[in-house]
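We modelled the chain as a single entity of 122 amino acids. Its sequence is:
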Amino acid sequence: MRILQPYFDGLTQGKLLLPHCRSCGKVHFYPRHACPHCWGEAYDWKPAKGTARVVTHTRVLANPPSAFEHLLPFDIAIVALDEGVSMLTNVVDSASLAVGDELKLDFVQRDGKTLPVFKTAR
């Protein structure tokens, strides 16, 4: 959990923090012990701008794990953040979603945890 602590601390403050490697300066996501670009192990955690584009997506209509049944239907997507990294996320409040759509960051509370989600920027 230690490597993820700054990430989760940021979420509780309404920020999506991304690790920026102190050795090479590159950002990466998901948080991990070593930078995938240079193997550096020290990071500065900086907030994401909060904008992204849809890379691919799907709408879940049936048969999710039981913990997600009450959310049906819901959209999940891989999004490309402006910082150059991608992440898997929920897209909420989207009647229609297409590859390339602009999205903006938002946060939801689920089971006492703050989670990042995205909304269409339209």
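As a brief sanity check on the tokenised model: The chain has two domains: 2-47, 51-120. Residues 67 and 111 are 10 Å apart (CA to CA).
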